Amino acid sequence: MTVVVRDEDDILDAQVAFHLNAGVDFVLAADHESTDGTAEILERYEREGLLHAIRVRGEFQQGEWVTRLARLAATDFRADWVINSDADEFFWPHGGSLKDVLSYVPSRFGSVRGMWRHFVPRPDEVRPFAERMTVRLCNPTHGYGLFNPHFKTVHRADPEVIVRGGNHHVFGDLGPLVRSWFPIEVLHFPIRSLEQCERRYLRQWETDTRAGRTPLPQPAEAYEAHQAGRMNEFYENAVVDDDELARGLREGKYTIDTRLRDALRALDRGRDSASPSAGLVGRRVPLDFSNRDVDKPYVSELGLLGEVDELVRLQHRIAALETRLAGLESSALRRLRIRLAERHPVRG
Amino acid sequence: MRLVLTLLARNEADVIDANISFHLDAGVDFVIATDNRSDDGTTKILEAYEREGRLRLIREQGTDMRQGEWVTRMARLAAREHGADWVIHGDADEFYWPRGGNLKEVLSVVPDRFGALRTFVRTFLLRPQDDRPFWERMTVRLSAVAPVHDPASIFRPGSKVIHRGHPDIVLGDGTHALQGAPLPALRGYSPIELLHFPFRTIPQTEAKFVRAWEAWTRNPNRPPPHYYAKAYSAIHDGRIGRFLDSLVVDDAVLAHGLADGSLVVDTRVRNALREIGVGNEDSGYRARPAERLGRLSGPDLDEEVRYGAETAALEEADVVRLQRRIDQLETRVRSLELGAGAHDGDRVPR
Known about the structure:
Number of domains of chain A: 1
Distance between the termini of chain B: 33 Å
CATH topology of chain A: Spore Coat Polysaccharide Biosynthesis Protein SpsA, Chain A
Mean pLDDT of chain B: 84
Order of helices and strands of chain B: EHEHEHEEHEHEEEEHHHHEHH
Number of strands of chain B: 11
CATH class of one domain in chain B: Alpha Beta
Strand content of chain B: 15-25%
Largest sheet of chain B: 9 strands, mixed
Oligomer: heterodimer
CATH class of chain A: Alpha Beta
Shape of chain B: globular
CATH architecture of chain A: Alpha-Beta Complex
Largest interface: A-B, 46 and 42 residues
Strand content of chain A: 15-25%
Radius of gyration of chain B: 20 Å
């Protein structure tokens, strides 16, 4: 697994430990100028021989850095498959561990996809994020926000692979994509606290602005709020409080999903309490991924992904062209008949 | 939820009882069947289910295989007169298998805003003949993880559409797509497989090809599918014996196919029909009582991945079909540029 991180010490230990217990053998990390405890967490896993970290500096170049890590996985770390993750993503396999699921993919296919499932921020910033954030959004909407329906691509190792920014698409001599089968859910925890929310959006705004791009709506709003001293208000608007949760559960907007919380509790159980600073490194706990039941929100979100699928869009465009052409053909035929009638009028 | 199955049948006495019993057991509430001039006992079986109140029988005397028109008629009846929430369209040799639970359960999780699903066809192969019914012999399934693009191949990947009941729905020949109905298709979720047993004995297969060829050639709106043309040409040239023999999977071919993964042993339909009791002397043509709703086994991880790979092959085939549609569009545009409209009959099968 590869991961690019910057100041992620509230989530990184859980993220790495989870994946090492979900079937990942080794982690390649790029640390982008972290100043919190992120580097120490990475070093703990490095000392255990479970992770290799590189340090990256300068403008945020996610695609370039992930591509470098993914190629390194193929050339130096004997990877068969590579998962390119962010620190706030937990790849949850269906039916077995990540390794189980990927090992069944027929050899001629080169990549499969995981579907994003978004968890929303909740009040109470004292407890760890996974203890609080057990509410999942059921109706993501298309757009540029953090909560849009999307996928992440997991691919066979390839020394020439190219991973585009966001880790949604990969390119290379990999073999076909298994397009309609999503054997992995990507549990996504993008906003977790006021401080992290502010940091995330302001960095995103700065990156876009420096690159001469128009900042996306949410970072732009966050930047405005920050400038006006209203960041608290901005964050509170994003938090789902108990009243909104009750309403959302009734309306089917939210659902309670404790899978990650329970998995992390299992990892935490029996940890060496005498040295809490050791974190979860070295924990080995069998996690249960056997449940493959699907419910309405899952199917609905798959449908949303289907709507933006390139092949489906192409089918729609061709169908629309066929309809337009049929209209033109019928007009042409009508004109032809009129011309024929004019040339050869029926005499009565 | 009320689930209606439509069936179009002609001389399918060896399979029709198993088909209807299976689907009534798997969650179908009611069957609408069109019997197209059967003379082999099929009608008698359909009438038995009709007497039980589980089936409405339409006797279609047409000789020109207007499949789309006949299926559309049944689909509309399902919505208008039989309160169908969902409608599935089968041929007698097609068994809709829900991937876990029953047909109603897997359809119940489809969000309201979606009105149609694709089912993926998985074909069972002809095995050397003996005295047993087809489901006891035909437990070998093709598992093609790469698409067959040849339009003349009977094994190219295919799909059919399942949809919510709609009074004005229009279906085309082959039931591959809806036409003009406001029922958005859900992509990415294919919880129902279509287990297909097209060739069950040599005589049945030969009769099927001859009958189908003759009926399709009388259809003014569509030429016969390429694979019927191929079979008919073999009949015409006296090569039919060799052609049919080539469809039989003997033990050597089976061993080879199992070793390279292109064939799998799949006993699900056999086991379900054994459990239902189809073929027992005391069941005969009787419709099963409605009190028991079958629960069919879901896939294990190996099968789940295989299914994903096979659906991916179908999507690769979709790309080729799209290219063919673009070719047709170009031909029609050229025709317009030359000052004349193209004719529907010129179009090649998708």
